[in-house]
Design brief:
With about 450 residues, this protein is mainly alpha-helical. It has 24 helices and no strands. Helix 3 runs parallel beside helix 5.
């Protein structure tokens, strides 16, 4: 009401039990923290953020080779092979003998389709090293020496424990051998079919650029090879060549109108190109034609309907995902958010929040979702318990700080609301939570300072 100075409102005695969250006053981090942040981003496939963290680590410790190797790899994953090459070459000035760095430079050339340069670099190194042997085997695939590559992949898979082959190299090598085995079932099968299978293997192990020239060869020889067009479209899609991807999937669709995989990936390509209506159409068609796994369809349609502001349809699709797959906390967050903020159904939000808590009892976000939903239901006593627990588990959870701000705002405790919005903004570090916290904080500032009505 008018005339009340909200900054003078004091926190009720009972609320003082909430844990205190320290807001860091120093924004710079240590070298180790930058590396740890970069690794977390890398694992979550947030490669741009990983690049930023690893870059800060190189500045923090310019004489260390470790962040440069990580930076080079993150650039490659982020489809920036020229910058990846530069990072690896800088690392080479620190350690001229590093095999990982030399292979990194070769990988960067592969991703720029400088195949001859990559081959020369690999040929200079000893194939006794598992990493060199693995990429030499890939290089032999590119030069269509399929028998030679198979022999190297076999050596990597069958090596004894003393050879200390990294597990990811064994797993990736086995993928190539599996396609060789499948091809062996087709007696008298043409070499072009094996080539297509090995291109699929290259995309399976995320060597997308390496697959593209081989796929060109296949399509030049056999223009009506539908599966080659699909794999080419997929390789383009994963290297951010979106228009080329759409063209490739459209060519595949022309060869078989209702193949669900083609329709699904064509929808994804239009999604990547921000053509949302077309993306919805093709992914819905993939669903009609039986694309599996079904939860992938539901997840993408949930995202697309959300962009179209079809909130009920979006929530329904996310709920379908949770009926079969409860591992993705992000889907729980979207279901709770939609039901609280867009659909006005906090009771349903609470239902799914409790499922999240049951399935992920150690995750601070689960408690945050329950507290968020209870706040929407104005059950403040219970909401406080869950939000406090979320912060106890993870003092840096920006979403819990945001919801505590809302919790206090709804009760008119503006000083505390502003404090938690400020914390959410600091903890969020320019993410969407931070943006929302800033908006809410500023709205409170405006409301508090507004003149009294006449």
């Amino acid at each position: 009401p008018n005339g009340i100075d909200y900054d003078e409102v004091k926190e009720p005695e009972e609320v003082t039990a909430l844990p205190t969250v320290e807001i860091p006053t120093e924004t710079s981090k240590s070298y180790t923290e930058y590396i740890e942040d970069g690794d977390a981003y890398y694992i979550n496939e947030e490669y741009s953020s990983a690049v930023n963290s690893y870059t800060q680590a190189t500045i923090s410790n310019p004489n260390s080779i470790e962040p440069l190797i990580r930076l080079g790899d993150a650039y490659l994953k982020n489809n920036m092979p020229n910058l990846g090459q530069a990072a690896f070459e800088k690392a080479l000035t620190i350690d001229e003998t590093s095999t990982i760095v030399k292979v990194g430079i070769a990988r960067a050339h592969i991703n720029q389709r400088n195949i001859e340069v990559a081959k020369d670099l690999l040929w200079e190194m000893s194939t006794e090293d598992p990493l060199v042997k693995y990429y030499t085997a890939i290089m032999l695939v590119l030069y269509k020496d399929f028998t030679g590559s198979k022999n190297l992949f076999t050596e990597l898979v069958e090596a004894d424990e003393l050879a200390q082959i990294p597990e990811w190299i064994k797993e990736n090598s086995q993928i190539f051998l599996n396609y060789h085995e499948t091809f062996s079932y087709f007696k008298g099968g043409e070499k072009i079919y094996l080539q297509a299978m090995l291109c699929k293997a290259l995309t399976d192990v995320k060597e997308y650029e390496a697959a593209i020239p081989l796929l060109f060869d296949i399509i030049n020889e056999k223009n009506n090879y539908r599966d080659a067009w699909i794999v080419l479209g997929y390789a383009y899609l994963n290297t951010d060549k979106i228009l080329d991807s759409i063209d490739a999937f459209t060519s595949a669709k022309a060869l078989e109108e209702n193949k669900p995989e083609t329709l699904f990936f064509l929808g994804l390509a239009y999604f990547a190109n921000d053509e949302i209506d077309k993306a919805v159409f093709y992914i819905e068609q993939a669903d009609i034609n039986g694309y599996e796994p079904k939860d992938q369809i539901d997840l993408k349609l949930g995202d697309l309907y959300l962009l179209q502001q079809e909130y009920s349809k979006s929530a329904a699709k996310y709920e379908d995902v949770l009926d079969v797959n409860i591992t993705n906390m992000g889907v729980f967050i979207r279901v709770v958010w939609l039901n609280v903020d867009k659909l006005g159904d906090p009771q349903k939000a609470l239902k799914y929040a409790y499922v999240a808590l049951e399935k992920h009892p150690e995750d601070a976000m689960s408690y945050n979702l329950v507290g968020w939903s209870l706040t929407a239901l104005e059950n403040y006593t219970e909401a406080k318990k869950y939000l406090a627990k979320a912060i106890e588990i993870d003092p840096n959870l920006d979403a819990a700080a945001l919801n505590l701000g809302w919790f206090y705002e709804k009760q008119g405790l503006i000083t505390l609301a502003k404090e938690y919005y400020r914390r959410a903004y600091t903890l969020g570090q320019n993410n969407s939570i931070a943006g929302l916290a800033a908006t809410r904080y500023n709205n409170l500032q405006v409301n508090i300072s507004a003149p009294n009505s006449p």
